[in-house]
């Protein structure tokens, strides 16, 4: 299992595509956070990162499918999954190894953004005038959100041999899971159905954690969400076992 994890991780890091993907994500974050007038912290005038944590989920919708699209699609296209399937590993172990590798890549993309918190901490008046608890909660929310999107991306990659198609499927599912239920809830006049749809969507739980409060219900939601898509991936892979 560790061998699969290591191969998956280094195959991404050894490719130029990996650095370009993460580099574009960090560049987009920097431009949106510091340079574009509508989202710039400097123009906003307050020492907080709410704008950053509102924008990153939409960047994740494209970043994470770009990371996960090759997980199974490339294996099947090149025929290397046949060799992988002959190893003394269960489909679930292969899925978890690839999932863990993508999570590490997600951390590689998130860790450099901590410099934004340091910058706001230094620029605050007085120095350090920033809600650290809310920032920590938001980063935890981002990490959990990334986990959910990675599970979606791996599932999408297991559906097809074409990486571009896997990317498109993952982007659609990620967007719908994040914003679709919230949009559907507005179609119902009854608050009961509206509440159910809101709770089914990721955004409501992400916003809850971003306020700095770790609710057990939100943690259970993200864990269940990841398990469901990893389970669907196992079903898909198991149905194509040679």
Distance between the termini: 19 Å
Low-confidence stretches: none
- Helix fraction by DSSP (H/I, runs of at least 4): over 70%
Counted up, domains total: 1
- Helix-strand string: HHHHHHHHHHHHH
Write the layout of secondary structure elements.
Elements: H1 2-13, H2 16-35, H3 41-44, H4 50-68, H5 73-78, H6 80-85, H7 91-110, H8 114-123, H9 132-159, H10 163-185, H11 191-200, H12 202-210, H13 216-239
Describe the structure.
This protein is an all-alpha fold. The protein has one domain (2-239). 79% of the residues lie in helices and 0% in strands. The protein contains 13 helices and no strands. It has helices at 2-13, 16-35, 41-44, 50-68, 73-78, 80-85, 91-110, 114-123, 132-159, 163-185, 191-200, 202-210, 216-239. The radius of gyration is 19 Å and the shape is globular. The two termini are 19 Å apart. The model has no long low-confidence stretch (mean pLDDT 83).
């Amino acid at each position: 299992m560790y061998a699969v994890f290591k191969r998956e991780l280094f195959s991404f890091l050894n490719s130029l595509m990996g650095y370009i993907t993460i580099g574009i994500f960090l560049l987009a974050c920097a431009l949106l956070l510091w340079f574009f007038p509508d989202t710039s912290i400097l123009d906003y005038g307050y020492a907080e990162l709410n704008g950053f944590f509102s924008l990153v989920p939409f960047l994740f919708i494209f970043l994470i499918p770009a990371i996960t699209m090759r997980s199974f699609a490339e294996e099947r296209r090149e025929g290397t999954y046949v060799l992988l399937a002959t190893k003394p590993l269960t489909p679930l172990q292969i899925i978890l190894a690839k999932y863990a590798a993508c999570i590490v890549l997600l951390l590689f993309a998130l860790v450099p953004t901590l410099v934004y918190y340091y910058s706001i901490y230094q620029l605050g008046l007085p120095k350090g005038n920033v809600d650290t608890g809310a920032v920590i909660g938001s980063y935890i929310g981002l990490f959990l959100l990334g986990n959910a999107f990675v599970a979606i991306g791996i599932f999408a990659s297991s559906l097809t041999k074409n990486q571009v198609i896997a990317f498109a499927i993952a982007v659609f599912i990620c967007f719908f899971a994040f914003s679709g239920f919230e949009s559907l809830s507005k179609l119902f006049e009854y608050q009961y159905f509206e509440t159910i749809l809101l709770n089914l969507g990721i955004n409501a739980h992400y916003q809850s954690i971003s306020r700095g409060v770790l609710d057990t219900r939100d943690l259970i939601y993200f864990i269940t969400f990841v398990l469901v898509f990893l389970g669907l991936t196992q079903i898909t892979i198991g149905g194509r076992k040679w």
